[in-house]
Specification:
By secondary structure, the chain is an alpha/beta fold. Helices cover 37% and strands 22% of the residues. It has a single domain, classed as 3-Layer(aba) Sandwich (Rossmann fold). The structure holds S-adenosylmethionine. S-adenosylmethionine binds next to helix 3, helix 5 and strand 2. One of its GO terms (molecular function) is methyltransferase activity.
């Protein structure tokens, strides 16, 4: 799979269709921009990250950038609930990827890195908290990190229930986003 603007551009109609059908689960009209994808991945220690999962993978736009950076020995699990996107993700010809047609609520196993595209602001609070609690547990054994992005700062109290975090602004995205790097709270 090659990184290209057209990969994103081709899927604009699919994002719009699914946003109209299910705005709370999509949370956005457009795929993440190259600048946002790169910013999400910039602070990851790729040499020491072998078990990686992306939750809310959409069309795999961030997955493409992850594959470029991750070790040849690392694995990437993709969790997604939308049928249209599952079809696209299943077409990725890459042995390091496993696609899971399953909600991130049911993430299992231990991970070094969890990358999230989930729209916590529009998901129900119950679902969001369940995902955050489970994600923390999945990261504890390996002292891993959760990297996520949001378009507003409105979910910080949810994140701080289970994580310590730092954040960075990315303007070159529609809409501009906040990228959060989160470490699990130990207590
Ligand atoms: C904001 S889009 C992000 C898509 C892509 N990662 C990107 O950056 O363009 C959110 C994605 O999360 C998916 N999603 C929503 N709830 C989910 C859940 N509980 N488990 C897994 N994926 C979910 C949606 O279907 C959608 O593809």
């Amino acid at each position: 799979m090659k990184l290209s603007f057209f990969y994103q551009f081709n899927h604009y109609p699919l994002y719009m269709k699914n946003f109209i059908a299910s705005p709370t689960k999509m949370g956005t009209l457009l795929p993440s921009s190259p600048w946002l994808c790169n910013n999400i991945l910039n602070n990851i220690d790729w040499k020491n990250s072998y078990k990686i999962v992306e939750i809310g993978a959409g069309n795999g736009v961030i997955s493409q950038y992850i594959l470029q950076r991750m070790s040849s020995l690392a694995s990437l699990d993709l969790y997604e609930i939308n049928n249209d996107f599952i079809k696209i993700l299943n077409q990725i010809d890459e042995h390091r990827i496993t696609v899971h047609h399953r909600s991130a609520e049911y993430l299992f196993g231990d991970y070094d890195i969890v990358i999230s595209g989930l729209p916590f602001r529009s998901l129900s609070k119950k679902t969001g908290m369940k995902i955050l609690k489970n994600t923390r547990e999945r990261l504890l054994k390996n002292n891993g990190s959760l990297i996520l992005f949001q378009y507003t700062k409105g979910c910080e109290s949810m994140f701080s229930r289970y994580f310590h975090f730092t954040k960075e602004r990315v303007y070159l995205n529609v809409p501009p986003a906040w990228v959060y790097t989160c470490k699990p709270k130990l207590d």
